[in-house]
Design a protein that fits this description.
heterodimer; A: mainly alpha; 0% strand; globular; B: 76% helix
C-alpha cells in the first residue's frame, strides 16, 4: 500500500510539473496583486510597512484559490478519481497525498517569492521572519480546508466563484491570527502564542479534514 | 430510543407534522410578537442614557440570538441528514437557511441603525459585528452551494458538509475576532457588558425572544412543506393532496 501511495505522489508531482503554465499563473497573479497595492494606496514606505503583511496574506489566499480547483478536477474528469475511490487505498490517505502535492506545487513557489515581496513592501527583518513562519504554518491549512470545498464542487462545472464564496469566510480566523503575529513582530513583541494557535488549527485540520475531503469526494462521485 | 423519530424520515409524515405544528407556531408567534413588541415599544420605561432609541433592542437582540440559534438548528439538521441519510433532514436544513440568513441581516441592519445615534457610526470592526457578518456569509455559502447542484439529494449532502464545517469555524471566528480586536484597539467604545437590565425592560425582551423563535419555526415549517411538495411532486400522496385541494376550489397552492 505504501508503494501505491508513493507512486501516486510521484505521478501527481510529475503531472503538476508538466503543466508549467498552470503552475506559473497563480505565481504571477500573486506578484501582480502585490504590485497593485503600492500603486493603489501610495508608495510611502511607512504605509506599505503597515499594510504589507495583510496584503501579502490576502494575496496568498487569493492566489491559492486560483489554483485550488486543479486539486481534483483532472482526476475527476478522466475517471481516475473513481478508480481511486474503488481501490483499496483508504480515501482519506489519497486526499492527504493530493493536498500535499498541491501544497508543494502551488503554494511553496509563492513562499519562495516572499523575500522579494518583503523588499517591495518595505518589511523589517523580524516582520519577514514572522510572516514566513505564519505562512509556512498557515498555508497547509488553506490547502486542507480548501480541498473540502473543492471536493464538494468538483462535479460542478462552474465551481470557481462558488469556491471563493465558500472558502473566504473560512479563512478569516487564519488571516486574523497571522497578521496579528506579524504585527507583534513589528513591535518587537513575542508572537509564539499566535503561531501556537495557527499550529493547533493546522493539527486539528490535519486530523479531520482528510475524512471530510474523502466524504466530499464520495458525494461528488455520487 | 430513536424509534419514535424514524417515521418522520418519510416525507409524508414530516408534512403531516408540519401541518400539526404550524398553527401553534403561527398563533404563538403572532401573540408573543405583538405583546412583546407593543409592550417594549410603548410601555417599557425609556433608558436613562439612551432615551427611547434603546427600544430597538427588542428587535435587535432577539434577531441576533435567533440567527445563531437558527444556524445551530440548521447544522443539527445537516448532521442528522449526513449520519442517518434522511432526506427530510436536508430539506429542513435548506428550509431554515434563508430564514436564518434574513435574521442575521435584520440583526446587522438594526445594529447599524442603533449604532449611528449611539456610537456615531454605522459600522465598527468590532468582534461581534464582524463575526455576525461572517455568519451571514456562512449562511449565503450554504445556500449558494445548495442552489448550484441539480441533484437535490447531492446538494443536501454537499451543503450539509459545508454547514458542519461552518459550525466548527463559528467559535474559532468568534474568539479570533475578539482577540484580534483587543490586540488592535485595547478598550473599545462598543462594550456590550451593560449593567443588568431592569425587569420591566427585560420581560418584553424575553417575550420577543420566544416570538422570534416561533416566527422562525413557522416560516421554516411553511418552507419545509413547500420543499416537500416540490420534491415529491410525483408521489401518489402529493398528487392526491393537490387534487383534493383543487377540488375544494382552494386557490392557495403551495406549488
Amino acid at each position: 500500500m505504501s508503494l501505491a501511495i508513493v507512486s501516486m505522489f510521484r505521478r501527481d508531482l510529475a503531472l503538476a510539473f508538466r503543466q508549467r503554465a498552470e503552475l506559473m499563473q497563480p505565481l504571477m497573479f500573486f506578484v501582480l496583486v502585490i504590485t497593485l497595492f503600492p500603486l493603489g494606496i501610495g508608495p510611502g514606505p511607512e504605509t506599505l510597512q503597515k499594510v504589507g503583511p495583510g496584503v501579502i496574506w490576502v494575496a496568498a489566499i487569493l492566489s491559492s484559490l486560483l489554483g485550488m480547483d486543479r486539486l481534483f478536477r483532472d482526476d475527476f474528469h478522466d475517471g481516475s478519481l473513481e478508480q481511486l475511490i474503488l481501490s483499496d487505498i483508504p480515501l482519506p490517505l489519497v486526499a492527504l497525498v493530493k493536498v500535499a502535492v498541491h501544497w508543494l506545487t502551488a503554494i511553496l513557489p509563492l513562499l519562495l517569492m516572499l523575500p522579494l515581496l518583503a523588499l517591495f513592501l518595505n518589511l523589517t527583518v523580524p516582520m519577514f521572519w514572522a510572516l514566513l513562519a505564519t505562512l509556512i504554518l498557515g498555508t497547509p491549512l488553506l490547502s486542507l480546508v480548501g480541498a473540502i470545498a473543492v471536493g464538494l464542487t468538483v462535479g460542478l462545472n462552474r465551481g470557481g466563484v462558488l469556491l471563493a464564496l465558500l472558502l473566504l469566510p473560512m479563512f478569516i480566523p487564519l488571516l486574523i491570527f497571522a497578521t496579528s503575529a506579524v504585527d507583534s513582530a513589528a513591535m518587537q513583541l513575542p508572537y509564539t502564542a499566535q503561531l501556537a494557535i495557527i499550529g493547533a488549527m493546522l493539527l486539528f485540520a490535519l486530523g479531520l479534514a482528510p475524512f471530510a475531503i474523502a466524504y466530499a469526494l464520495r458525494v461528488s462521485q455520487n | 430510543m430513536w424509534s419514535w423519530l424514524h417515521p418522520y424520515a418519510k416525507t409524508e409524515r414530516a408534512y403531516a407534522l408540519c401541518n400539526t405544528l404550524l398553527p401553534w407556531f403561527v398563533w404563538g408567534a403572532l401573540l408573543t410578537l405583538i405583546v412583546g413588541t407593543v409592550w417594549g415599544l410603548m410601555f417599557a420605561p425609556s433608558d436613562y442614557q439612551q432615551g427611547d432609541s434603546f427600544r430597538i433592542i427588542y428587535i435587535h437582540v432577539p434577531s441576533a440570538l435567533m440567527s445563531m440559534g437558527a444556524y445551530l438548528a440548521m447544522a443539527i439538521a445537516a448532521f442528522v441528514g449526513l449520519v442517518w441519510q434522511w432526506r427530510t433532514a436536508f430539506m429542513t436544513m435548506i428550509a431554515i437557511a434563508p430564514v436564518g440568513a434574513v435574521m442575521t441581516f435584520i440583526s446587522l441592519f438594526t445594529g447599524a441603525a442603533w449604532g449611528k445615534p449611539m456610537w456615531g457610526t454605522w459600522w465598527v470592526w468590532d468582534a461581534r459585528l464582524t463575526s455576525q457578518l461572517i455568519l451571514l456569509f456562512l449562511y449565503l455559502g450554504v445556500i449558494a452551494l445548495y442552489k448550484s447542484f441539480d441533484d437535490k439529494q447531492q446538494a443536501g449532502k454537499a451543503s450539509g458538509v459545508m454547514a458542519l464545517v461552518g459550525v466548527i469555524n463559528l467559535p474559532i471566528i468568534h474568539y479570533s475576532v475578539e482577540w484580534w480586536n483587543t490586540l488592535h484597539q485595547g478598550a473599545t467604545i462598543t462594550k456590550f457588558a451593560k449593567p443588568s437590565i431592569a425587569p420591566e425592560m427585560l420581560w418584553p425582551l424575553l417575550i420577543n425572544l420566544v416570538g422570534f423563535a416561533l416566527f422562525i419555526a413557522a416560516v421554516s415549517a411553511v418552507r419545509l412543506k413547500n420543499e416537500i411538495l416540490r420534491r415529491e411532486l410525483h408521489r401518489p400522496w402529493v398528487i392526491k393532496l393537490l387534487s383534493e385541494s383543487q377540488q375544494q376550489g382552494d386557490n392557495h397552492r403551495a406549488v
